[in-house]
Amino acid sequence: MAMGNDGGKEQGELYIPHTELRGAGHPFYEALDRVLRNVGFDRFVEDQCSPHYAEVMGRPSLPPGVYFRCLLIGYFEGIDSERGIAWRVADSLSLRSFLGFGMQAPPHHSTLSRTRRRLPVEVHDRVFTWVLGRLAENKLLVGKTVGVDATTLEANAAMRSIVRRDDGRKYNEYLEDLAKAAGIEEPTRDDLKKVDKKRKKKGSNKDWVHPLEPEAQIMKMKDGRTHLAHKHEQAVDFASGAVVAVTLHGGAAGDTKTVGETLAQAETNLQEVRSECSAEAQELLAERIEEFVADKGYHSNDVLCDLEEVDIRSYIPEPARGRRRWKGKNAERDAVYRNRRRTRRAKSKKLQRKRGELLERPFAHLLETGGMRRVHLRGQRNILKRLLIHVAGFNLGLLMRKLVGVGKPRALQGAYGLFSSAFFVLVATPHALWAPCVLLAWRWPTNDAFRMWSRSANERLPLLAVGWPAGTKTTGC
Fold this sequence. Notes:
The protein is an alpha/beta fold and 477 residues long.
């Protein structure tokens, strides 16, 4: 038998653990995972979801903690659909680690949607309130002054599919009947356009509805397009910018008709947080909502009277309505005049400036960088489930900003863009200050050296313009 040798090489490992196959994880998700584990997030959601599952029968489902973490990933990564969340998780080892998966397959998008359909909206609402409780424990919630604002969400429904409420006719069929009634036996497409152009109120919600999304309403979007939409309204705490209530309505619902439900939901959530938080957190929390701030779209006699009935001071700018008659409306008159006096004070102007910041910022995070401007679900209860956890992710970002200094995983990109812009401004400013001197010296015939320096400076100027950094698609938070 011949003698063998190892060739001077050591034999490698036969089995390699999956932890050795990946590099360093994302520091934000590692910190978020530690925070959620320390406060018992997974155990809490399992307790809330257990009544909706069988005790022993059937195949084990997706853990509820993994489902809610996937929805949180949708906010932090700016993903608008459950299919997109599943693709992103399958592509990222850092997100797999955040969900507690190793090398095994991550959850399929159909599993996420099935879990969402199984769990009622009340469970999602309790998870949202639980996150508010964590803000209160970290002294990030007061609840004394609350502001309300709303925006539109593009519905998952096309205008071409709307039908008449009375007989179910489609839009083109209705136009053909109008054209035939006008004497056109075989109307062409151009004839239908002419007939439709002369009509008024052709997009009335009283006459038209989408057969698969009846809760969506025809609405003009912020970019000028007419589309089926939902109305997303939320209440924000002015002490920290945390969202304390979320409601969903039809896109054409008026602000004065929906504000009562949103404000009542905010008070309910805050009362639940007060009853469950520690004594130290209760010292900072207000006993009830005392001040209400909104824009002039929420100004009406009924809103102001309702606020006075529950002893809430209103700070709502009054729109220009001209001279008003108050015969037989003494209570409405007094409420309007008291609100008018408050809005003229310096405190009201300060609150309105703060409103422009604190009420618009969540919309930028949730809808623009968060990807929820257009919804992919149908039915307001389904949409509200996703929206509640999306907003809970925003509130968790406030908590993460206090604990670790960063509120979103892409915040450093925004900080880099801000630093780069400031650097190039500092570089370009001296040249801008010297530009008038250069123009004067250029006309001086004997200063050849200065003319050579100014020519070289002008040649360097395009480099500054080309090197100016493009804006990053983050909110910088």
